[in-house]
Amino acid sequence: MDVTPQQMMQQTLIALTEQYQALPALNIDLTRGKPCSEQLALSNSLDSMIAGNYSSQDGVDTRNYGGIDGLPEAKALGQWLLDAPIDNILVGGNSSLTLMSQAMLIAYQFGLGGEPWQNAKFICPAPGYDRHFALCELFGIKMIPVAMNDDGPDMDAVEALIGEDRSIKGIWCVPKYSNPTGAVYSDEVVERIAKLGQKAGAEFKVFWDNAYSVHDLAEPAALSSLWQQAEAHGTLDNIVMFASTSKITHAGSGLAFLATSERNLADIKRFLGFITIGPDKVNQIRHSRLLNSPEALTRHMQAHADILRPKFEKVVEVLDRMLSGKGVAKWSNANGGYFISVDTAPGLASRTVALAGQAGVKFTPAGATFPYGKDPQDSNIRIAPSMASVDDVEQAMSVFCLCLKMAALEQGLAKFN
Amino acid sequence: MDVTPQQMMQQTLIALTEQYQALPALNIDLTRGKPCSEQLALSNSLDSMIAGNYSSQDGVDTRNYGGIDGLPEAKALGQWLLDAPIDNILVGGNSSLTLMSQAMLIAYQFGLGGEPWQNAKFICPAPGYDRHFALCELFGIKMIPVAMNDDGPDMDAVEALIGEDRSIKGIWCVPKYSNPTGAVYSDEVVERIAKLGQKAGAEFKVFWDNAYSVHDLAEPAALSSLWQQAEAHGTLDNIVMFASTSKITHAGSGLAFLATSERNLADIKRFLGFITIGPDKVNQIRHSRLLNSPEALTRHMQAHADILRPKFEKVVEVLDRMLSGKGVAKWSNANGGYFISVDTAPGLASRTVALAGQAGVKFTPAGATFPYGKDPQDSNIRIAPSMASVDDVEQAMSVFCLCLKMAALEQGLAKFN
C-alpha cells in the first residue's frame, strides 16, 4: 500500500515529537542582546583609569556638579561612534534609550526645533527593535510599519507615506546591522532618508539609533554618513542620532551619546538643565581614557568580535545543516550587530517559540519585532546568541530547528482536516 | 549748625562708598551649594571599591544590563537616608532632581497611583529651592507660595488651600535644614503634612526632598518620620521621598534614591522600564561598599561637617559683627544643610546682590528662592559658603554687609526725595 503524503508527514511528526520529548532538561536564554562575562571582562580596566586623577583634559574636577553636555574627550568618543561633528555631540548617562525617550518627550511636549507634536505618527521599519516601538506606545504615538529590506527600509513606501500624511513626525532607524535583521542601509537609502525632512517639515525627526556602528564581526560594512547627507540637503534639524557604549564596555554602566543640529541641541540642553545638574563625568573620563583613540576603539571591538563570532557562526551553521532546502525558513548571515533574524514560513513563528520555550530554550516572543507586537505573517524570530556559550548556542539552535520542523508539520497536517 | 539725619546718612553712605570703591579686585562665588575639593576628596576611595569584584551581594554581575530598581545593598543606603522601608526604595542614577522630574512627569502625564494631573497646582513653601520651582514651570504647574516658618511651612495656610482648591496636586518640602532657611520641620508639621492626603485625594503628592537628612553641622536635628506618620494616617500613596549622595560622595557621580508606596512604585518602575534598561549598578556597589553601615555614613558626614563648619561659622560671625542691631537684616544660624539665609529689610535684596556682584562677589540672584523668581518683599538672599575658602568667605561676607548697608542708606535717602 502506498504511503500518502499525509501519512508521511504524520510519521515524521511522530518521530520528531519523540526526539523532542527525549530532550534533556534545558535552560538556555537567547532572548536579549546582552554581552557575556568574557566580553564584559574586556573593559575591566575601566576601573583603573582614574588612579587618583579626576581631572578632565581641560582641568575640570569631574567629581563635582555641572557640564550638562559632557566633557570634550567624551564627546570625541561619541564622534567616532556617530560620525558627526564633535560640537554637535551631547554625552548622557548610561542609556541611549533614555536619551531617545528624552528627545521624544521634548519633541512631543515642548517642541524639538519646532512646534510640539500633536497626534503624531511614526514610521517603523519592521522587523525592528521592540524598545523603540515601546517608546512610541508610551507617548501614544501611532506606529505605521513599513517593510525592512536588505538595504534598509522600503523607501518608496516611506516617501509615499510622508507625502500623504503630515502627521507623520518621525522614523526609527537602526542603520548598521539593523536589529534584528542585520541589514546595513545602502548609500541610496541613507541619502533618501536625509532628504525626507525637505518634504516632511521642521517637526519631522529621523531617530537614527546607530547602536552597532563599530560592532563588526567580519570586514566592517560601510555606512554612508547621514550627517554629511543631511548637511548637503539642508535637513540637519531633521536628524537626531544616538549611540552608546553599552555593547562596547560595561552594558549597565557606560555612556550614551546624541548628535543633532545646534537648534535641536539647544532645546535638548534647555530641557536637561531642568532635570539634572549634569551627567556622571567621572565615568566619562574612565571611558575616554580606556578608549582614547579610534584605533584603541577598533582593537577593543575586534576583541569583542573574536568572542562573538563563533556564536554567530554556530547559529548559522545549525540553521544551514538542519533547515537548508526545507522551505520552512530563511535567515540572515549577520556580519555584525547582536542578532540573527529568522523568517519562518508564514504562521510558524509563535508555535516554534512556544515549543522551544517548553523545552527550556527561550527566544524573544514572536511578534516582538513588530509594532504593537503584531507580526502580520507570524514569521520573524530574533535570535540573540551573545550571552550563551557556543555549546549552548548549538544545543539551543538544534532545539529551535526541531521545533520549527514540528510547527511546519503540524501546520501542514492541519490542512488535511 | 545741627547735622540732620539726612546729612548723617549721606555722610555715612559717602564713607561706605569710598570703602566699596577701594575694595581689591575679587572673584568669589557663593551662589551654589557645591562641595569643595577637600570634601570631594573624602570619597576618593570610591574608586578602589571594585578591585576586580563586580559582583553584588546577591551575586549579580553589576557590569551587565538590568535591575530597574537597584541592588539591595544600594537600597539599604537609601533606607538610612530616607527613613523608609528598604522594599519601598528605588535607586536611580546620579541625580535626585531627575527622579523628581520623572515622578512629576509620571503624575502629570500617566498618573502616579491615580489619574493624570490636569491643570495642576503645587504649594511651594517659600523661600525654597529654585530647581524645585523650575520643575513646576517646566510642566506648566501653577505655583502657590506659602510662608516658610522656623518649624516648616505655614500649615494653616497649606490646609486652607487644600480645603478650597481640588486642583492642588502637591507640595514641595525640604524637611531638614530646608533650602535656604535651614529650618527643620517640627513633629507637628510632619504629622500635619502626613494627613494632607486624607483631604486632598489620591493624586495629591508630597514631594519630600530630604536632601540634607544626614548633613548635620552640630548636634543632629531630630526629624519625625514622615513614612511612619503617613502609614499611621493611611496616606502612603500621597508621599514620594527623595535623597541622593550628591553632597555625601562625589556630587556629579553619586546615587539618587526615591521611596514611595508599592502602588506608586509600580507606576514608576513601569515608566522606567520604557526609558532605560537599568541604572549604573557598578556605581551602586562602589557606594554601598564605601558607606557600608549607618556608622560609616555618620563618620563620613562628620568629616564633611569638620570642613564645612568653619565656613558657616564665618558667615554668621561676619553678619553678627557687622550687622547686629542695625535693623537691616536677620539671618539663620544653620545647624546643617548647605545654606545660610539672610532676610534683609524689605526692598534691599536685589540692590545688595547687584552691588556685591559689581565688586566681584556672586550671590544667588535675589528672588531665586521664590516661585517665578519673585520675592514679594525683595528680602531673601541665599548664601552658599561650601565651595569657597574660609578666608574668601570672610572677605565675601564683609563685602556683602558693606553692600547691604549701602543699599539700606540709599533706600533711606530715597525717602527724602
Polypeptide structure, described:
- Two copies of one chain form a homodimer.
- By secondary structure, chain A is α/β, with parallel strands linked by helices.
- Chain A folds into two domains: 5-30 and 297-414, Aspartate Aminotransferase, domain 1 (Alpha-Beta Complex); 51-292, Aspartate Aminotransferase, domain 2 (3-Layer(aba) Sandwich).
- Chain A contains 13 helices and 13 strands.
- Chain A has helices spanning 5-21, 37-41, 72-82, 96-110, 130-138, 155-164, 187-200, 226-233, 262-275, 281-290, 294-323, 349-358, 390-414, and strands spanning 28-30, 89-91, 121-126, 142-149, 152-153, 168-173, 205-209, 239-244, 256-260, 329-331, 340-344, 361-363, 380-383.
- In chain A, the strands form three sheets. The first copy, chain A, has an eight-stranded mixed beta sheet, with helices on both faces.
- The two termini of chain A are 22 Å apart.
- The mean pLDDT of chain A is 97.
- The interface between A and B is large, with 47 and 47 residues.
